[in-house]
Design goal:
There is one protein chain. With about 170 residues, this protein is α+β, with helices and mostly antiparallel strands. It has a domain at about 45-160. It has helices at about 1-20, 55-65, 95-100, and strands at about 25-30, 35, 40-45, 85-90, 135-140, 145-150, 155-160. The strands form two sheets. Strands 4-7-6-5 form a four-stranded antiparallel sheet. A three-stranded antiparallel sheet has the order 1-2-3, with no helix packed on it. It is globular, with a radius of gyration of 19 Å. The relative contact order is 0.17.
Amino acid sequence: MKASATRLQLLSILAGALCALPADAALISRSDGLVYDSAQDLTWLMDSNDAGATMDWAGANAWAASLVYAGRDGWRLPTPDPDCSGDYDCTGAELGHLFYGDLALGLGGTADTPITELHNANFELFTNIADTAYWTNAALAQDTTFAWTFDYFDGSQIAYGKDQLYLA
């Protein structure tokens, strides 16, 4: 009887611990310089400026397409939020999900606030996150000389001329 009561207590503690875990998926640090985002089923480079420099949109896409990292190829730039144009709170953007979700969790990712100033512990999973725009993989439909960026300075998704220099 005592063993059953002990098992029941352990099961109750385990159930309580599982309920205390966030219902949302998480960022998982991997030993090979990558971070897995289970909510988006994506893998990010830990180094947010692995390319080492700003580049125009064509250069950013070419860099991502030719990247082989930790023995993996098939990389691409992140996608923007298709329903959000030139605005804040673009959580459908892959970078927007990080800015307003995984790096925030109630502690950061606030429109008009650089992510380097206000964030949670997930921020520490990455290196070289800059308060600047990062290219996405999509051109602006109305004018294909522009492409979407996501800006970690203020949490906005904005289209800029493809000849501008931003991070990839």
